[in-house]
Structure formats: C-alpha cells, structure tokens
From TrEMBL:
Transmembrane segment boundaries: 67-90, 102-121, 271-291, 297-322, 682-704, 830-851, 866-888
InterPro entries: ATPase_P-typ_cation-transptr_N, ATPase_P-typ_cyto_dom_N, ATPase_P-typ_P_site, ATPase_P-typ_TM_dom_sf, ATPase_P-typ_transduc_dom_A_sf, ATPase_P-type_domA, HAD-like_sf, HAD_sf
Compartment list: Cell inner membrane
Pfam families in the cross-refs: Cation_ATPase (PF13246), Cation_ATPase_N (PF00690), E1-E2_ATPase (PF00122)
GO function terms (MF aspect): ATP binding; ATP hydrolysis activity; P-type magnesium transporter activity
SUPFAM superfamilies: Calcium ATPase, transduction domain A (SSF81653), Calcium ATPase, transmembrane domain M (SSF81665), HAD-like (SSF56784), Metal cation-transporting ATPase, ATP-binding domain N (SSF81660)
Main location (coarse class): membrane
Domain named Cation-transporting P-type ATPase N-terminal: residues: 21-92
Signal peptide residue numbers: none
GO terms under cellular component: plasma membrane
Name this polypeptide is given: Magnesium-transporting ATPase, P-type 1
The EC number(s) this enzyme carries: 7.2.2.14
Membrane disposition: Multi-pass membrane protein
Length: 896
C-alpha cells in the first residue's frame, strides 16, 4: 500500500532511487559532486542555501504570516468587522452629512486591532519559546566534514554529505551505503514491519526486488532506525525531497496520538456549538417578535453568539503551555510536544525500566565465573570477544566487560589473534547475541561463535558444558545446579549473563540464528548496578502525589525484586511475560492493577501492558531511552526520555529529561498539574459566566421593551473580560490540586455551568429590576411607557450603562469566586497578576461612562447610589456563590 502511494506521489524520485541503487558507488559520488572524504563547511552551506534545511514541514510549523492571519480570523474579530461594516453604512454612508458619525466604527476597528495583535504577539512568543527549548535537545548526526568526522544538527545535513550511522541512530536522510558492517535496519516507521532487515553496501537489488524500495540492500531511507551494526553512506536526498519525506509527514500527522487534552477541547467545541445553535436563534426570534426590529435583533443575536465563545481560549491555552514548559526547563525537563503537559498533569501511572532510573546506571562487572564458581581469564577473554566485536548498541554491560578486560588482560593481543567474521544481533525474542571470530594464531582458520544472553534462553540452545577443561553433556542435574548458582547470585542483587561458545559453527558468510544451537556453556558474568540514593525518596514523593510507579523490565525476577526491595516498592506480586501469555482480557485487566513489577518483557508486551492500563481508565506515562522502548513510548499517553537516549527514543518522546532521575519528574508533574488547573479555570469559569449572561439576556429579552444591551457594548464587555483572563496562566494553584492526578475531563462541564451560571443571573435579574423600576425612572422622570421618544432613549441608555457595569464586575468577580472552593478574597486569594488584571478591567469599564468615549459607546454617567448598589450586589453574589460551591462540592472531588 505504501509503495503504491509512493509511486503515485513521487514516481520520479522512485526512479532516481532505483538508478542510484544499481549504479556504482563512484558514479553516485561523482553525480552528487562529492567524494568519500565528504564536503567542506562552505560547500555544505552553499547547498543548504539552495535546497533548504533537512526538515519535513508539518502542520505544527507556522510562519509569522500564518500567526497573523490566525490572530485576526477569530469569531470575535469577524463579528466586530461585520458590525463595523454595518455601522459604517448606517451611521456614515446612508445618513445626512450633519448626522455622519464614525466614532462607533473607529472603536470597533480598535477592538479588532487590540484583540488580533494580542493573539499574534502571544503566538509568536509561544513559537519562539518552543524553538528555544527544542534547541536544548536537538538530534545530531555524525557527518564527515572538512576531512574529519563530527556531530552536527540533523537539520544541517545536505545532499553530498558522507554520513556515519550506528546502532540506535535514526537515518537522517535518504542515502546510499558506501560501506557497512553487520548493518541491520528497522523500517517500522514506514511500513510497520518490526523485523529488522540486513543492509549491505556490496549488494545491489535483484530484479525481483526492484518493486520493493525498502528492500534495497544498499539504500537507507530517512526516518528508519539502525538496530545493529554500522555503516557509511552518501546523502542523495534531504527533507521533503526524500522518497518517503511527504509520506512520512502524512503518517506522522495521521498517527499522532490524540491526547486527552485534544479530546477535551473537541468536547468543549461540541458543547459550544450546541449551545450556540440553540440560543442564538432563540435570542433572534424573541427580540425580533418583542421589539419588532429584526435587523437589530439579528445584530444582537450575532453579538450574543460571540459572547458564548471563549475567544481567548487559544491564547490562554498556549500561554499556559509555554509558561509550564519554561518552568519545567528550570527543573531539567524539556517539553517537545506542548499538549503533552496536560497529560503529564493527568498521569496517575508511570511505567519505567529500572536500569538508570531506579539504579545508578553504572554497571560494574563484579565476577566472571566458570561453572565451578571460580574467576578465570578464559571466561573473561570469551566475554571480551563478544562485547568488543559486537556492533549493536554497546550498552553498559558491554562497556563493563571491556573495562575489566582492559585492566586484567592483554586486549591488544586478543585483537591481534582474533578478527571478526560475522555477528547475529540481539533481539528480544531470543534474548541473546553472538559474534563469530576467526583465530589467526595457533589454531589458524578456526571459527569461534561466542554467545551471551539470559540464562533460560542460553541453556535452551546449549547441549554441553565446560568444567575443569573438559567438555561434558548438559544433563538435567547440571542444568539445575547452574540455575541454583544463578538464583543465589540474583538474590544478592547481581544480574547474571550466561556465556557459551561453539567451534566452527558454519561456513563463512552463512551465519544465522540456527547456528545458536548445541552451544557449550562456559560460565557466568555477574554485574552490579546499585540503586540510586535518591530513588527511594523520589518514589515515595511520586506515591504521595498519587502516581503509581510500575517497573516494566527485560531483566529477570530475582534481580528486579532485589532492586525494588531496596527502593521501597511492593514486591509481593511479580509477573513475567510467560505468566501473561494466554490470559484473557479480563484477567490481564486485573493483573496490571494488582502488580507493579513485570519482568522479562519484550517490547511488544511492554506496549500491551500500557494499553491494558489505558483501557482500565488510567493516564499512563512511560519513561524509556532505548530502541526497545520506542513502541511503548508511542503507546503511552505521555512519553518521557532523556537527553542521552538513542535517537529513536528522543524522537518518540513528548518530554525529555536532561537528568535521568525520578526526582526530576516529581517537579515536572506538579508543574503539569498547575498548567492543567489554570487552563481548566479559564474554560470552566468563562463557560459558566457566559452561560449566566445568556440566561440573563433571554430573561431581559422577554420582559424588556428594548434590547438589554447594545451589540457594541456586549462586545466591549466580552473584550474586557477576555483580556483580564490573560492573567490566569500566572495564577497560583492550591496545594490540594497539586497532590493528586488531575483528569482532563469535560463530562461535568454542563453540571458546573448549570450550578454557577444561574447564580450570576439571579443578580443580573435583580439589577434589571433595580434599573428598570428605580434608577432609570428616578433619572428620567417617569416609567419607560410614560416617556416620549427622547425620554425613552435616555431610559435605555441609562439601563444599558448600568447593566454593563454590573455585568462586568460580576464576570470579573466570578474568577475570584470559582478559582477555589474557599471563601474568595478572604480564605483564598488569586495571584497579584490576576488581582491586578481583574480589578483593573472592572475599574476601567466602570470609568468608560465618565470618559470621552462614552458618547461613541452610547454610555451615560451613572450616579453614585447605583455604584453602591452594585457593590452591595457583589458582596451578596460572592456569599451566594460560596454557598452554591458548598452544595456542589458534596458530590464533586474538585471545583476546577
């Protein structure tokens, strides 16, 4: 399917790749104007200037022009522009010269500019902040430049570059191999196949393989992963010019996991659309029928629809996320994917391997025993041959073997006596790896296969043992003794690797996993990786914060139990992969809840366990740093890696730690929860406040003989409130919200709205009554019905001004009332930024009727008595809201 798509989308590129795969290496180098020694820095810069950077554009990358268009194409600004256009015709173009008035149009245009420019500036700042953070964890590529190998950012790779790749690397661009050593590549990111394929610079595709581009043995494609071995190649395509560049981008977009945050935003959008679809026509019909002016009713209905829309949501969400990201960066945590912060705050389970996370990650080779439990140079020599000559991921175990051998043996002599013939890479099904060497010393020409791996898997393919210099059968009794010795070592916290060999296993060039049979077990390698001193306290802190840590490891049960016991984890129940195979979905769902330690897992089973936990309703984080962790990281709700991880792990990660320590995560989780809480504050408070306003408008529209507020005034009210909400990302958060995982849930949003929206409407209705029956008649000299046209106009203007001021204060105070379940301004207070923004906006709005803009906005001066009435209503409103919160909290765990 992928190849058909590629043939349609990039047939010319496909033909070019086929030609390059078949031609001689010297011809390819000549046509790319390069040589085996690579390009100079100057040549690379010139090429990059012509072809661009080695990046695939995605929907997440946007220009300033895009931000500018996005900032001004919002429901709020579009409605303002529509109203400004209508006002231009009704107040300027189609009126006599002496009645022409542009003040309303000017005010609306200024509002558009204020709203749009604010959004634009914030989006640009967000984009810049993200780029700055990602620079701290950029993926690099080993390139030969200026005659020497050096690490450069992958985006700086150009056509003609000579690239070195090794196990753990992501291939940075489409390239033709010039040389290779036991190179195996996984193309799962492109074709979904998990089995690695061997690549060889000396082979060319055969006619029957020409249709399957991924099977070209001498071509590596951008985005694939080197599983083992090494190679050197020349780049012939970068960025979007790679054969699979555009397809990879499409796959990334369609397969990008949808976070609970994304789902929540979609649910809120559906709720808003439903409310708008119901309420807007009602407002239109009610006002059209009761007032008789359908044009005014339509304009007012449109303004009401805008009032339902939290137009500052994108700005506030991005401000929250950027602020959270910057705060996390101060605690050695870099956020790659902004929306993942919300999931980070929601996570209640963290799955992780133990090596380097719970342990120090400084593996030491303690002993190199023969089967008589004595240390011998022969065992160490065999181990050195395996670790030194293997070209897969040289992990901590291999390095520990090499370090000890360098101290205890003449390794230069070993290297002189043996040269490598082939290797059989490690995989998580066999759980072992082998190298084949040729002895060029006394036994010239003898081939020796040396294998190391997990005990059960090694003994399963062994038939003999070497004891006291003799080769003896591997009887059941001897096998039991070997397992007993291993168990004793494991109980002391030692990780044990079994070592075996085989002489003259197969003709040269034909070594396969089938040759790992009838092996001769020679001894054990025991390793110690002590727990981190900080691990126990970090796990206790995460547990206090409501996060359960589950260990998913490929190590065996005994070692994992020993480490887990030292760091304070529950070791009563431990399951291995064998225990899980064949279990029903119901049984697995129960097992993953009761057990915190899973051992001897393949990457597929790590992914399976995370999937089952998610189906059980958990938000799951996964922390990994190796090739084998990539599938689990993609499955998790939030994936975490470290800056020292392999490329594929860093590419899969949502969050990257600059220090591999669980204590770093503790700070990051709390920041994630604070970010989530402040985002929910805006959404919940604004929706309930807007819902209350709409209820008030509906009541007023039914009973008042005129519009309760002019469309322009309604939009000014919306703009002042929305602008003040820009301070919410800088608000403080109660400790109660930081100690437990916060689910990004919108299912109780309607309930929140129906509790607190009508609460504010009660005081709006009281304000209507006071204005209509007391204040307006007192200032105009009679009831509305008794007045002439001029008097009624004055009556309406006073009413509009009064409700504008009261509604603005109510909306600003609702932020303080609903940000915390305690009594506002006394038992709980917002941050200084929020206090300044909310009270500042309310005071500014109160002063508008006394300013020079009052006439243009159709406001009039209010008397002092009304302002005191508003103050009294606010006190009553805050008290009533506190009572309603009390009843709401009887059935809810959190207010926000």
């Amino acid at each position: 399917m992928l190849n058909k798509t590629m043939n349609k989308a990039a047939s010319d590129d496909a033909k070019r790749v086929a030609r390059i795969a078949l031609e001689k290496r010297s011809v390819t180098l000549a046509q790319l104007h390069t040589n085996s020694n690579g390009l100079s820095t100057e040549e690379a810069a010139n090429i990059r200037e012509k072809t661009g950077t080695n990046e695939i554009a995605s929907s997440n990358q946007a220009s300033k022009l895009h931000f500018l268009v996005e900032a001004f194409l919002t429901p709020f600004t579009l409605v303002l522009l529509i109203l400004a256009t209508m006002s231009l015709f009704t107040n300027y173009i189609f009126v006599p010269q002496r009645e022409k008035d542009l003040s309303t149009v000017i005010i609306m245009v200024v509002m558009v500019l204020v709203s749009g420019i604010t959004s634009f500036i914030q989006n640009v700042r967000t984009s810049n902040a993200v780029r700055s953070l990602l620079k701290m964890v950029s993926v690099t590529t080993n390139v030969r430049r200026d005659g020497k190998d050096q690490e450069i950012p992958t985006k700086d790779v150009v056509v003609g570059d000579i690239i070195n790749v090794s196990a753990g690397d992501m291939v940075p661009a489409d390239m033709k191999l010039l040389s290779s050593t036991d190179l195996f590549c996984s193309s799962s990111s492109l074709n979904g196949e998990s089995t690695p394929t061997e690549k060889n610079a000396n082979f060319v595709p055969t006619p029957d393989k020409m249709e399957n581009y991924l099977d070209y043995p001498n071509i590596l494609f951008k985005g694939t992963t080197i599983v083992s071995g090494s190679g050197r190649g020349v780049v012939f395509a970068t960025g979007e010019h790679t054969v699979f560049g555009k397809i990879a981008a499409q796959i990334a977009d369609t397969e990008m996991k949808e976070t609970t945050f994304d789902t929540g935003i979609k649910n809120i959008s559906k709720l808003l659309l439903t409310m708008t679809a119901i309420i807007t026509p009602l407002v239109l019909v009610v006002n059209g029928l009761t007032k008789g002016n359908w044009t005014d009713a339509l304009i007012f209905a449109i303004a009401t629809a805008v009032g339902l829309t939290p137009e500052m949501l994108p700005v506030i969400v991005t401000t929250n996320l950027v602020r959270g990201s910057l705060e996390m960066s101060k605690h050695q945590t870099i956020v790659k994917k902004m929306n993942s912060i919300q999931n980070f705050g929601s996570a209640d389970i963290l799955c992780t391997d133990k090596t380097g996370t719970l342990t120090q990650g400084q593996v030491i080779l303690e002993k190199h025993y023969n089967l008589e439990m004595r240390e011998t140079d022969r065992v160490l020599k065999m181990a050195y041959l395996n670790s030194y000559y293997q070209t897969g991921m040289k992990d901590l175990i291999d390095q520990a073997v090499i370090d000890v051998a360098d101290d205890d043996l003449d390794t230069s002599e070993i290297q002189r006596d043996y040269h490598k013939i082939d290797e059989i890479p490690f995989d998580f099904q066999r759980r072992r790896m082998s190298v084949v060497v040729a002895n060029s010393d006394q036994k010239h020409g003898e081939h020796l296969l040396v294998t190391k791996g997990a005990a059960e898997e090694m003994l399963a393919v062994s038939s003999q043992v070497e004891i006291g210099g003799q080769i003896l059968p591997l009887t059941e009794e001897r096998k039991k003794q070997i397992f007993k010795d291993i168990d004793d070592l494991n109980s002391d916290g030692m990780r044990v690797i079994v070592l075996a060999y085989k002489v003259d296993p197969s003709p040269v060039g034909k070594f396969t996993v089938d040759d790992e049979s009838d092996l001769i077990v020679i001894g054990f390698l025991t390793f110690l990786d002590p727990p981190k001193e900080s691990a126990k306290n970090a796990l206790a802190s995460l547990n206090r914060d409501g996060i359960t840590v589950k260990i998913l490891t490929g190590d065996n049960e005994a070692v994992t139990r020993a480490v887990a016991l030292k760091v304070g984890l529950n070791i009563d129940t431990v399951y291995g992969q064998k225990d899980l195979i064949g279990k029903s979905d119901e049984e697995l769902a129960k097992i993953v809840e009761e057990c915190d330690i899973f051992v001897k897992l393949s990457p597929e089973w790590k992914t399976k366990i995370i999937d089952v936990l998610q189906k059980n309703g958990h938000t799951v984080g996964y922390m990994g740093d190796g090739i084998n962790d990539a599938p689990a990281m993609k499955q998790a709700d939030v994936s975490i890696s470290v800056d020292s991880a392999v490329d594929v792990a860093k590419e899969s990660a949502d969050i990257i730690l600059l220090q591999k320590d669980l204590s770093v995560l503790e700070h990051a989780v709390r920041i994630g929860r604070k970010t989530l809480t402040n985002t929910m504050k805006y959404i919940k408070i604004t929706l309930s406040s807007n819902f209350g306003n709409i209820l008030s408008i509906m009541v007023a529209s039914v009973f008042l003989p005129f519009l309760p507020m002019l469309p322009l005034q309604l939009l000014i009210l919306d703009l002042l409130y929305g602008t003040s909400c820009l301070a919410l990302p800088f608000d403080s958060v109660s400790e109660d919200y930081l100690h437990v995982p916060r689910e990004w849930a919108t299912k109780n949003m309607p309930k929140f709205m129906f509790y607190f929206g009508p609460t504010s409407s009660i005081f709006d209705v009281i304000t209507f009554a006071v204005l209509f029956f007391v204040i307006c008649p007192a200032l105009t000299g009679g009831s509305y019905a008794s007045l002439g046209p001029a008097g009624q106009l004055a009556f309406m203007t006073i009413f509009h001004t009064g409700w504008f001021v009261e509604s603005l204060w109510t909306q600003e105070m609702v932020i303080h009332a609903l940000r915390d379940e305690r009594l506002p301004l006394i038992q709980q207070r917002a941050s200084s930024a929020v206090m300044l923004a909310t009270f500042g906006a309310a005071i500014f709005g109160t002063l508008l009727p006394f300013s020079k803009l009052a006439g243009a906005m159709k406001f009039v001066h209010l008397n002092e008595e009304f302002l005191w009435i508003v103050a009294g209503l606010l006190v009553c409103y805050l008290l009533l809201t506190t009572v309603v919160k009390h009843f709401y909290m009887k059935k809810e765990k959190f207010l926000i």
